[in-house]
Design goal:
It contains 6 helices and 4 strands. The chain has 157 residues and is α/β, with parallel strands linked by helices. It has a single domain, classed as Rossmann fold (3-Layer(aba) Sandwich). Strands 2-1-3-4 form a 4-stranded parallel β-sheet, with helices on both faces.
């Protein structure tokens, strides 16, 4: 089965030679710094240093930074990191929906993998429980970059 083969292939998580850039929102920086640390640590364990790390004010600015990086055309994948904690207003839904749509738009518009690590949580305790999302995003970015390279080279279907 093709999907099982890709999932079980350790080469799909070999980050060596890949250029992966990260964008970190500073809002809730005590959380996003830990997401960044988790992501960076996992990338190193997989064989790569982040090609670039950009810091932006908040989750709404993340898609624009991703777009600017994608336009350059010199990265294999991108990672979006942020944390939106529900407040008492509708603003939470607006930020979550808009940032997620923007991240997806960059991925689809440029044909570049973008791992979305923008946490959308009810409270800080939930955010703390999901710090490993940074490491998960590193793995997703590497796997999807390998998949994209393979498809471009005609090696995966």
């Amino acid at each position: 089965m093709q999907n099982a083969r890709l999932r079980d292939d350790p080469a799909m998580l070999d980050a060596s030679g890949l250029r992966i850039a990260l964008v970190q929102a500073r809002f809730n920086v005590h959380i996003t710094d830990r997401l960044l640390e988790s992501c960076t640590r996992q990338l190193r364990e997989l064989g790569a240093e982040p090609a670039q790390v950009l810091s932006v004010p908040g989750a709404l600015e993340v898609p624009q930074a991703l777009e600017l990086l994608a336009r350059r055309g010199d990265v294999d994948a991108l990672v979006a990191l942020g944390c939106v904690i529900r407040g008492a207003t509708y603003h939470f839904e607006l930020v979550c929906d808009t940032s997620a749509a923007g991240v997806q738009q960059v991925a689809l518009g440029h044909g570049i993998p973008v791992a979305n690590g923008i946490l959308t949580v009810e409270d800080e305790a939930q955010a703390q429980e999901r710090i490993d999302k940074g490491a998960e995003c590193a793995r997703v970015a590497v796997e999807m970059a390998r998949l994209a390279r393979g498809l471009r080279a005609g090696q995966a279907s």
